[in-house]
Amino acid sequence: MVIWWTASIRDMAKKNKMRLSERLLVALNDIVGRQLVTIDPPYFYRNGDVIISQGTRDALNRSGAMPNYVKATHWFDVFWYYVNVQVRKDTDKTSEVPFVSVSFFQEEGEILNQLFRAEWDNYPQKSHPQPHWHITTIREEGFDVFKDSTAVDEDSPFAELEKEERKVNLPKMHFAMAGDWHGGEKENMVSDYMDERQLANWLNNLFDHVREELLYAY
């Protein structure tokens, strides 16, 4: 019994000395791997303070000011994903917090088209809901689609938009994922990061939810 407790204390001490990126890597491979059964473990690897999912195919990831190509991983059917977790210093300059970005793609011939992206950031200034969705599917249709279905006269709600060719930058919008609207707190849309196991559980349930919805919608 003494040996068991000694080993347990030693393991806890060792874990406490691990950096957040190391603990996250263990938790993600342990928990989220249950969803990612189409590839061999490890499902994630670490490059410094950045954790990335395995990938085999180039995909354009519309995140940040400059879109960039990433290595997406096949998930099921025509759907692919890409996970990026960056560990950064918090405002106190000592503790660490993760910034999570998960992109989902649909295979369309030779191209992987990004459908949407889920993110959970930990910026000190909470200007956007956390976590949140980005809708990144791009369709350059303009207003011809409205002309085909209805006359655009001066009283039409599309008349002014047609005149100025204004468009909503949809990928830039942050769609709240965990807003406390049902509790009457419309401004309470920020969930702070807690620990690596909770983040891994969130990511695991995210994959499970998206898979169900894709199967339903596709």
Verbal overview:
It is built from 5 helices and 9 strands; from the N terminus they run H-H-E-E-E-E-E-E-E-E-H-H-E-H. It starts with a helix and ends with a helix. The protein has one domain. With 218 residues, the chain is of the alpha+beta class. Strand 5 (79-89) and strand 6 form a beta hairpin. Strands 1, 2, 3, 4, 5, 6, 7, 8 and 9 form a 9-stranded antiparallel sheet that branches. The relative contact order is 0.14. The longest helix has 22 residues, at 196-217.
SSE series: HHEEEEEEEEHHEH
Computed structural class: alpha+beta
How far apart are the first and last residues' alpha carbons, in Å? 55 Å
- Whole-number average pLDDT? 81
Largest sheet: 9 strands, antiparallel
Q: Proportion of β residues?
A: 25-35%
Q: Treating each run of at least 4 consecutive H or I residues as one helix, how many helices? A: 5
What Rg is obtained from the alpha carbons, in whole angstroms? 21 Å
Number of domains: 1
Shape: globular
Can you tell me the residue ranges where pLDDT is under 50 for at least 5 consecutive residues? Answer: 1-10, 140-150
Q: What is the percent of helical residues? A: 25-40%
DSSP strand count: 9
